Amino acid sequence: MAALVVGGGLGAGARYVMDAAIMRGRSGTFPLGILLVNVLGSFLLGLVTGLGPNISPAWVSILGVGVLGGFTTFSTVSTETALLAERGRRDWAWVNLVGTLVLALIAAAAGLVIGELFPR
């Protein structure tokens, strides 16, 4: 349990750093940093899942539930989408919502396929 908590904290910290680095110097309201965080996190979770038989179940949980659970964030996507719509940028709100879902699904599937390529 402690490893999951630590992993979640590490993942959340990595999310903050990646989002801040992507958004630094960018003008505009589109939350590109969080979109890319979620796409990367989905790819990595797919990869961990595909590699599952090659990794101990404890590590699958620590990486998948802890680190990547802390790294990715659906609540921020929801909030950013609502804020975009509230600010009159419904076009960007839809791009953010649909783009996140579609790209994250494609990324997760790609990670899963790549992970399953490794010998068991």
Give a summary of the structure in a few sentences.
With 120 residues, the protein is mostly helical.
Explain the overall architecture.
By secondary structure, this protein is mainly α. The protein has one domain (2-117). Helix content is 82%, strand content 0%. The protein has five helices and no strands. α1 (2-23) runs parallel beside α3 and α2 packs antiparallel against α3 (57-71).
List the helices and strands and how they pair.
Layout: H1 2-23, H2 32-51, H3 57-71, H4 74-86, H5 90-117
Distance between the termini: 27 Å
Radius of gyration: 16 Å
Please report the total strand number as a whole number. Answer: 0
Low-confidence stretches: none
Number of helices: 5
Structural class: mainly alpha
Order of helices and strands: HHHHH
How many domains? The number is 1
Relative strand content: under 5%
Determine the fraction of residues in helical runs and give it as a percent range: over 70%
Largest sheet: none
Overall geometry: globular
Arithmetic mean pLDDT: 95
Keywords:
120 residues, 82% helix, mainly alpha, single chain, globular
